Amino acid sequence: MNTLLRNNIERTIGQNITDAEFESFEKYFFSKSFDKKTVLAEEGKVCKYVYFILQGSGYSYYINEQGEKNVIQLAIEGYWITDQYSFFQQKPGVYFIELIEPTDVLVMNREHFETLCRSNILFERFFRLLIQNAFVALQYRLAKTNSEEAESRYVEFAGLYPHFIQRIPQYLIASYLGIKPQSLSRIRRKMITMSNKQ
Amino acid sequence: MNTLLRNNIERTIGQNITDAEFESFEKYFFSKSFDKKTVLAEEGKVCKYVYFILQGSGYSYYINEQGEKNVIQLAIEGYWITDQYSFFQQKPGVYFIELIEPTDVLVMNREHFETLCRSNILFERFFRLLIQNAFVALQYRLAKTNSEEAESRYVEFAGLYPHFIQRIPQYLIASYLGIKPQSLSRIRRKMITMSNKQ
DNA sequence: TCTATTTCTTAACATAAGTTAACCATAAGG
DNA sequence: CCTTATGGTTAACTTATGTTAAGAAATAGA
User: Fold this and answer.
1) Which stretches does DSSP call E strand in B84-162?
2) Is the pLDDT of residue A25 over 60?
3) Whether A97 contacts A41, CB under 8 Å
4) Is the CB of residue A104 less than 8 Å from the CB of residue A33?
5) Distance CA B127, CA B122 (A)
6) Which candidate in A86, A125, B15, B24 could, as Cys together with A93 as Cys, close a disulfide (CB 3.0–4.6 Å)?
C-alpha cells in the first residue's frame, strides 16, 4: 500500500477512506521507474497517462513558435503530472513532460481513470477537488505573473517552495517564472548583495 | 426551463440529459437581476454563490499591495463566475466580482452545490469537467503570458473573443492581458497604422 | 441639452527584462 | 584523471512596457 498516495487522497477530499476503498483505487495504477531526462509526454502525441510521482522530479513545458521552452509545471514527489488537455480529450497534446531526476511514478491510463471515476462518486469527487485546487493555485500564479515583478515572484516562489529551489535547475525555475535565466541570476545577485549590506 | 444552462451542461459532459435530470439540476438555482457595477463578491468576505450569467457581463479581479486592480476573469452570458477558492473552501476570498452591464444570473449557494454533486454522479462529473476545461484554458493563458509579448497576446485574444472586444472596456481587457491601458492603446494604434500601410 | 464622469489616446521619459556573448563552476562520463 | 557537457554568472547594450501627465472622445446623468 502506498501511503504517499493515500495521504494525497485523504488530504484532498478532507476525510479518511477505508482500506478497501483505497485498495479499489490503487489497483488501477502500476508503478514504474524511469531514468532522468526520460520524456513521458510529447507535443503532437496523445498523452496516455497521468503520473503520480513517488520519488524524483519532472516538469511539463511547451515550445513556442520561436522554439523556446516554456515551463508550465514543476513536480516532485507527491505531485500529479500529465498533459490535462491531451489526457482528458484523448487528442494530440501541446506539452512535453520530461523527468529531471531518476523518478519512480504511479501510472494510470485514461480507461482506468474513467472506470475509477464512474465506480465510486468518492473518486470522481477526488479528481474534481484535485483539479479544483490546481485551478485555484494556477489562477493565483497568473494573477501574480500579471501584477508583480519578477523579483517578488521569485521571492514568493522561493518562500513557498524551498525544496524546489534546492533540486530544480535555475533555468527551469526562471522559465516557470516567465523570465530568462540571466534575469534570474541578476535578481539573485541583487538579493545577495542587498542582504549583505543590511 | 433555461436552454442556455442546459446547453452548457450537455456540451460540457458531451451527452444529452433527460428533462427530469435537468429539472433536478435547475431547481437548485434561483434567478436574479442586478444593476451594472453591482459587486457580487468582495475580498475578505466568503463568496457564497456561484453565478451563471444569462445576460450581461462581469469580471473578477484582485487588488495587489500597490492598490492596483488586476482582472482575473471576464465573463458574459453562458459563463460561470465565482471566487473558486472562497466558494469551495468557504473561507474569506481574495477576489472581487463586479458587473459591467446590467446582468441576469442564475445563482446557487454552496449547500445546494454540495447536495447537487452528491445527488448524482452526473453532476459531480459536470463540475469536474467544467473546472477541468477552465484549468486547461487557464494553463494555456499562463503559457502565453509567460512566453509571448503583449501584442501577440492581444491579437490572439481579439481573434478568440471578438464579442469581448466589443463589450468590455479596454482598460479591463488590458488588465486581463497583464498590461496597462496605455500599452494596449499603443498596440492598437500600431496595428491600425500597420494595416493601413499594407 | 449641457455638464460631469468615465474611458481612451498620445507623448516624453524611465526602467525592468531581453539579447548577445563571453567566461566560470560544477558534474558526468570515458 | 582529464575532458566534455551542463548549468550559472556577468556585462554592455537593446527593447518592450511602465510612468506621468495632459488632453480628447465618449457616455451617462441632471
Assistant:
1) 96-99, 103-109
2) yes
3) yes
4) yes
5) 9
6) A86
Residue A180 CB lies within 7 Å of the nucleic strand C: yes
Å between CA of A195 and C1' of C20:
30
For residue A188, which of A176, A172, A170, A175 has the smallest C-alpha distance?
A170
- Looking at the complex, report in whole angstroms how far the Cα of residue B125 sits from the nearest Cα belonging to chain A: 7
From residue B1, alpha-carbon distances to B21, B76, B79 in Å are 12, 20, 18
Residues paired with A76 in a beta bridge: A57
Cell 431547481 maps to which residue? B27
B-chain residue closest to A62, CA distance: B143
Q: What pLDDT is attached to residue B13?
A: 95
Mean pLDDT over A155-167 rounds to 95
The C1' atom of D27 and the CA atom of B172 lie apart, in whole Å, by: 17
Which residues, including other chains, have CB under 8 Å from residue B11's CB and lie 6 or more apart? none
Quote the mean pLDDT of chain A. 95
Give the residue from B146, B171, B184 with the most A CB atoms within 10 Å of its CB, the best one to mutate.
B146
Residue tagged 450581461 (cell numbers): B56
- Gyration radius from chain B CA atoms: 18
For residue range A46-78, what is the model confidence (pLDDT) as tens digits? 999 999 999 999 999 999 988 899 999 999 999
| Residue B96: HSE in the Cβ half-sphere, 13 Å Cα cutoff | 14
Asked if residue A86 lies in contact with residue A47, where contact means CB atoms within 8 angstroms, the answer is yes
Q: Give CA–CA dist B159/B153, Å, rounded.
A: 10
How far the first Cα of chain A sits from its last, in Å, is: 50
pLDDT for A29 equals 98
The predicted-structure confidence for A73-109, as pLDDT tens digits, reads as follows 999 999 999 999 999 999 999 999 999 999 999 999 9
> Which residues of A are less than 8 Å from B70 in CB distance?
143, 146-147
Q: Which amino acid is at B124?
A: E
Q: Which of A73, A82, A77 is nearest to A53 (CA)?
A: A77
Mean pLDDT score of chain B = 95
